[in-house]
Design brief:
The protein is an alpha+beta fold and 383 residues long. Strands 1, 4, 6, 7, 8, 10, 12 and 13 form an 8-stranded antiparallel beta sheet that branches. It has a 3-stranded antiparallel beta sheet with strand order 5-11-9, with no helix packed on it. The protein starts with a helix and ends in a 7-residue tail after the last strand.
Length: 383
């Protein structure tokens, strides 16, 4: 116990002997390193959320495309069912007409058959006397035979008429059978088409449900991203004054910065709210994007000290230069870094190369101006 107390006393004495400035500087450095670690963690979390958003958006796009294809298939099947129903309706109407025609033929046959039976019965009852009367009334046997032939001709005619009626009825029944077979085939085809429609609709319902789930996931990931982004931004803002105490920076005396991307003056995205190229929603853009080919030089906008040079989440490879007086500049998405933290740089010095690292859709320099850790429009500062 006594030994421990002695060690604590020695440590305290050593600390008291150290220059106050050095102790404060070391504390500030440790604090800055801790904040930087938190920034890195927030940046990592933000990047992971962004990756999930991109993956979910891509999956959603595929699912929506599949849903649209299923919709088209369902439309085709429904059109097919509509056409089949029309054919079945026509067949029903044709069958009904055939049935009415058959009934009419049957009625005519029955009526004619009854009349013919009556004639035959009358002839049968009076055949003997009739033939005798016919014989006696005939002037010759030839005339008698002619009368008999006439009676037979009438009988044959009636029989032929009935046979023709029966034949017509049979033809109509055969035609009706053909239509009924056609209707049966169409009903079977309709059953197959309806089953296909139900299967497609089930798949479409599943795709729509999956789309809703993906949209919910995307919104959830966006909240995570936004939370991490805000945390990262707040931490960066808190880091600016802390780092300024740890470095022997050149005091910024105002004046214009030099253009950080020499020979390339096109601004592909200005400062302020814009349609985010990745999220496709309105987001605040904290700097200006200067379009330039990959590998082009990036210049320090003014004299200062490098606060940071390394990977910085969505900024990719990034350099932050402290110009003193609470003013700093940020250079994002670099393909290559040519300076390191703590290094002093001069205005116009090449500090990095243009690239498309981090959250980027193409080669460009993302340039920010920060006043006391808060971003501001860089354009009034650039010559």
């Amino acid at each position: 116990m006594k030994t421990r107390r002695k060690l604590i006393a020695v440590a305290a004495a050593v600390l008291l002997c150290l220059p106050v400035g050095l102790t404060n500087d070391n504390t500030a450095v440790v604090h800055a390193q801790t904040v930087q670690e938190k920034i890195n963690n927030a940046s990592k979390e933000k990047q992971e959320a962004l990756d999930k958003i991109k993956a979910a958006e891509a999956e959603k796009e595929d699912v929506v495309a599949e849903s649209e294809a299923l919709d088209r298939e369902i439309d085709i099947v429904q059109t097919e069912i509509y056409e089949i129903d029309s054919i079945i309706d026509e067949a029903d109407a044709e069958i009904k007409a055939k049935e009415e025609e058959i009934a009419k033929h049957e009625q005519n046959i029955e009526q004619h058959n009854d009349e013919f039976k009556e004639v035959l019965r009358s002839m049968d009852e009076t055949s003997a006397s009739s033939y005798l009367e016919l014989l006696l009334s005939s002037e010759s046997f030839s005339e008698f035979l002619a009368h008999v032939e006439t009676i037979n001709e009438i009988t044959r005619h009636d029989t032929a008429v009935i046979d023709e009626m029966v034949s017509l009825k049979n033809s109509v029944e055969a035609a009706k059978a053909v239509v009924e077979t056609k209707k049966s085939e169409q009903e079977e085809a309709r059953g197959i088409a309806s089953e296909k429609e139900n299967t497609l609709q089930t798949k479409l319902d599943e795709k729509e449900k999956l789309t809703e789930e993906l949209e919910q996931d995307i919104e959830s990931y966006k909240k995570v991203y936004e939370k991490a982004r805000k945390e990262e931004e707040d931490l960066k803002a808190s880091l600016v004054p802390k780092l300024s105490k740890t470095t022997d920076t050149v005091k910024y005396t105002g004046g214009k910065f030099c253009w950080p991307a020499p020979s390339y003056v096109r601004i592909s995205s200005p400062y302020g709210y814009r349609l985010h190229p990745i999220y496709k929603t309105q987001k605040f853009h904290s700097g200006v994007d200067l379009a330039a080919p990959g590998g082009s030089n990036i210049l320090a906008a003014a004299d200062g000290t490098v606060k940071m040079a390394g990977w910085n989440g969505g900024y990719g490879n990034c350099v932050v230069v402290d110009h003193g007086g609470g003013t700093s500049t940020l250079y994002g998405h670099s393909s290559k870094l040519l300076v390191s933290a703590g290094q002093k740089v001069t205005k116009g010095q090449v500090i990095a190369k243009v690239g498309t690292t981090g959250n980027s859709t193409g080669n460009h320099l993302h340039f920010e101006v920060l006043i006391n850790g808060k971003t501001t429009d860089p354009m009034p500062y650039i010559s």
